Amino acid sequence: MTSETVMEIGEDALIGRVTDGLWTGDGVVIGPGDDCAVVKASGSDWWNLLKTDAVVEGVHFLQETDSEKVGWKAMARVVSDIGAMGGAPLFALVTLMVPKTCEVAYVEGLYAGLKRCAERFGVSVVGGETTSGPVVMISVALTGRVRPRFCVRRDGAKAGDAIYVTGRLGGSIRGHHLTFEPRAEQGRWLAENFKPHAMMDLSDGLAKDLPRMGRVSGGLGCVLDEERLPVNEGCSVDEALNDGEDYELLLAVSPRRQMRLEEAWRERFPELELTCIGKFFKGTDKMPLEKSSGGWDHFSS
Amino acid sequence: MTSETVMEIGEDALIGRVTDGLWTGDGVVIGPGDDCAVVKASGSDWWNLLKTDAVVEGVHFLQETDSEKVGWKAMARVVSDIGAMGGAPLFALVTLMVPKTCEVAYVEGLYAGLKRCAERFGVSVVGGETTSGPVVMISVALTGRVRPRFCVRRDGAKAGDAIYVTGRLGGSIRGHHLTFEPRAEQGRWLAENFKPHAMMDLSDGLAKDLPRMGRVSGGLGCVLDEERLPVNEGCSVDEALNDGEDYELLLAVSPRRQMRLEEAWRERFPELELTCIGKFFKGTDKMPLEKSSGGWDHFSS
């Protein structure tokens, strides 16, 4: 037994320790560690995607935040994860914890945001539950589906792959983290048309998520072209690297497909940028971001 | 806009209000309101069951409670719901909120309990997440599967049906609520062999859950034979009716099947009681429990 706290060991170490030795039955394609879990559907040639994610008052939003936006965010985060695997979202369950003294109108606002996002992305909210608790917390569990050949993992990047991101990064704390559009349609389109070697959504900041992708892809390093980094207006490169909650897609693409991808993307999504920001290399010597202390850890002080 | 609080309108009214007007896409068999949501599996003749449930420190367990038991309870609650639909549990996602100062050993205890229950009932834990927050909260999202012909809803009771419960009721607060065995195997056996007209698990107390089953089954009333109520040792009838968190199965069975059911049950589950406690009637005039103020509401003061 140890008296270490979760803050001392950090989120990644905690997850590693508690998921160690998990029993796994039949039908699990991808367990803990990717954007979604992937399981085989009984008697079907589809795979099911499973994802859950929670937003907590005081951690992911403030008490005074418009509850409609909080609801949108709670649903949009999981929709983003389904898209990052190349899948389509389907069914959601909503767990809501609110203090007993919470106003009904506040809760109605939360659900209005949840419903708006769900409808926009074709998600049926099929259940959930409410409980009391000291702060507001919404956890959304979402299922999706994907054809096995279109399922994109985060650990398949190869040395030489070009690294792309959608949209622009940084400064999400100024409001974007509450109103972002999950890249579900884009993720699915990318998977079905260009099957990236690896894909994930950027939730903890590029400085943390990019090395993560390299690490799980057999220990790849990367070079990042900071001058090409698509930075949101008013943001520094440092903020674009470290702010987190961008919810843009990060993907690794074979260099042979770059030109075709860029052309097709411009045609299909003319209003959204897709930028090549660097390259994966063999070996972790080229890992400029690895030394950064940036990115988001839920248990850091 | 209203300034009512959730405590003032109560849990049922709150759920009714926020789930009103939910958009529903294809494939939803049963939406909010039953033990689980039921959805069609893409390209398969199975149905999928979806359930999520949270336990919160200070609401469902105390800070000093052995965390291994808390973990067991969190998983056992959702396993119980899958069983109450006649299904088999499959894949779980675990959302864990803990304070930053929480000891790692406490979290390892939670997971030890979760894993023990998962393994016992054949559940693969395939993912989840951790976040910080002011108290400990575990939410488990669980999928299951059921053949359409064996899926048992809670709203199918018919006038004249015999009402049964498994096990004994009452006094769960003295420890049973942390260590109970979900009746997953029993629920599936009942569904596959005797297809009850309606089934649910008892979480809020018989005084609340039995009228609920009658109400959703087209507004049935019931008579309850209090003398036959299987009461746990040391409990009063009142406690057996109102304590909640029994996690026993409540089911409605055609009177023609009673004798065969009771015989087969004794053979199959000799160590667990199955007791006929009353009967459903047409019309709500016979609803002795409806007037009771008992049962559990998460937002009552």
Radius of gyration of chain A: 19 Å
CATH top level class name of the largest domain in chain A: Alpha Beta
Head-to-tail CA distance between termini of chain A: 23 Å
CATH level-3 fold name of the largest domain in chain A: Phosphoribosyl-aminoimidazole Synthetase, Chain A, domain 2
Element-level helix/strand string of chain A: HHEEEHEHEEEHHEHEHEHE
Number of domains of chain A: 2
Q: Provide a count of the helices of chain A.
A: 9
E-strand count of chain A: 11
Helical content class of chain A: 25-40%
CATH architecture type of the largest domain in chain A: Alpha-Beta Complex
Catalytic activity (chains A, B): thiamine phosphate + ATP = thiamine diphosphate + ADP
Function (chains A, B): Catalyzes the ATP-dependent phosphorylation of thiamine-monophosphate (TMP) to form thiamine-pyrophosphate (TPP), the active form of vitamin B1.
EC number (chains A, B): 2.7.4.16
Enzyme class (chains A, B): transferase
How is this structure best described in words?
Two copies of one chain form a homodimer. The longest helix of chain A has 18 residues, at 67-84. The radius of gyration of chain A is 19 Å and the shape is globular. Residues 290-294 of chain A have low confidence and may be disordered. Chain A has nine helices and eleven strands. Helix content of chain A is 30%, strand content 25%. In chain A, β4 (88-98), α4 (104-120) and β5 (124-132) form a beta-alpha-beta unit. Chain A folds into two domains: 26-149, PurM-like, N-terminal domain (60s Ribosomal Protein L30, Chain: A, 2-Layer Sandwich); 152-282, PurM-like C-terminal domain (Phosphoribosyl-aminoimidazole Synthetase, Chain A, domain 2, Alpha-Beta Complex), CATH 3.90.650. Chain A is α+β, with helices and mostly antiparallel strands. Chain A has a six-stranded mixed beta sheet with strand order 1-2-3-6-4-5, covered by helices on one side. Chain A starts with 5 loop residues before the first helix and ends in a 19-residue tail after the last strand. Chain A has helices spanning 6-9, 11-19, 67-84, 104-120, 176-179, 184-194, 206-216, 237-242, 258-268, and strands at residues 28-30, 37-40, 47-56, 88-98, 124-132, 137-146, 162-166, 198-201, 220-224, 249-253, 274-282. In chain A, α3 (67-84) runs parallel beside α4 and α3 (67-84) packs parallel to α6. At the A-B interface, α1, α2, β3, β4 and α4 of A face α1, α2, β3, β4 and α4 of B.
